[in-house]
Amino acid sequence: MSEVTAQDVAEESAMKKKQSAAEMPKPVEGSAPINASAHTPLYHQAYLVLRDRIVGGDYPFNTVLPSEAKLCEEFDVSRITIRRALNELAEEGYVTRQQGRGTTVCYEMHARAPKANFDGLIENLLIVGKRTEIELLAFEMRKAEAIVASALELREGDLVQYVVRRRRLSGAPFSHVVSYVPGDIAKGIGRKDLSAKPLLAILEARGVHMTSARQTVTAVAASPDLASALEVEVGVPLTRVTRIVHDQNKRAVEYIVAHYRPDKYVFEINLRRAEDSHERKWIA
C-alpha cells in the first residue's frame, strides 16, 4: 500500500483551496465524474465511481487500472484523494495494489452472480437455491399482521409460518429473505428442511402445485439490520423483491420479502418485439 508523502498533503491542500474558490460546477459532457460541491468526501465519490466500473464490468477481472496520475486528471482531484479511494477498494477486496505494478482488479464475483429472469420465475428460484448456502436466521409460528394477512388473503391474526433466511454464494451473503406461509400449509415443515432446501422445493414436495406469482421489484437503502445481515454499509442500495405465489387453486401459498445485493445478484428480462393493429411494442 502506498504511503502518503508531504508532497501529497501539499497537493491536497492546494486542491481544497482551488475547490473552495470555484463556483458550483455545472454538469457538462466530459466533466469530472464527481461533484466537488457534494457533502460526500471526494475520495469516497471516487471510490464509488471506480467500484461501480469494476462491478459493472468496465474494468474486468485482472485488468490494471489507469495510473494514479491519470485518475487524478480524470477526477480532477489530488493524488492523496485517489490513493485513498484505491486503498479503500483494496481493503474491500476489489483490487490488489503492488509497488511498481499498479492497481489490479481482483473482483470477479459479478461473472458468477446468480441470475433470475421473469419468464422462468419458479424454476430460476429453485436453481438459485441449489447453487447457494442457506442460513436459517429465524423460524416461528406467529399471528399474521395486516400486511401479511392481506397478501395471503387471510384474516389478521391467523397463524402463519415466519422464516428468515440468508443465502451465501462462495461464502459471501447476497440475499436476505423473509417468507410467510399459511399455518395449515406450513404444518410439518421444520428447521431441518428449511436449513437445507429452497422453500419452493419443500412446498412442491408436499403436493403444493404453484402456477403463478405476482412480483414487484424496487430499490431501497439498506437499513442497519439489513446492512449487518448482508455485510454492507448502512444506506447502500439494495434490490427489494416482494412476491406472492399462488397454487393451482389460485390460493396464495407464500408471501416473500427479499433483499438482494445488486453486485451479487442479477435480474434479467427477456423481451420480444410484438405488433398489433395499433402499435409495435416490447413485451416480456
Automatic annotation (TrEMBL):
Keyword Transcription regulation: yes
GO molecular function: DNA binding; DNA-binding transcription factor activity
Keywords: DNA-binding, Transcription, Transcription regulation
GO biological process: negative regulation of DNA-templated transcription
Annotated region (Disordered), positions in chain: 1-33
HTH gntR-type domain mapped to chain residues: 40-108
Keyword Membrane in record: no
InterPro entries attached to this UniProt entry: Bact_HTH_transcr_reg, Chorismate_lyase_/UTRA_dom_sf, Tscrpt_reg_HTH_GntR, UTRA, WH-like_DNA-bd_sf, WH_DNA-bd_sf
Protein name according to UniProt: GntR family transcriptional regulator
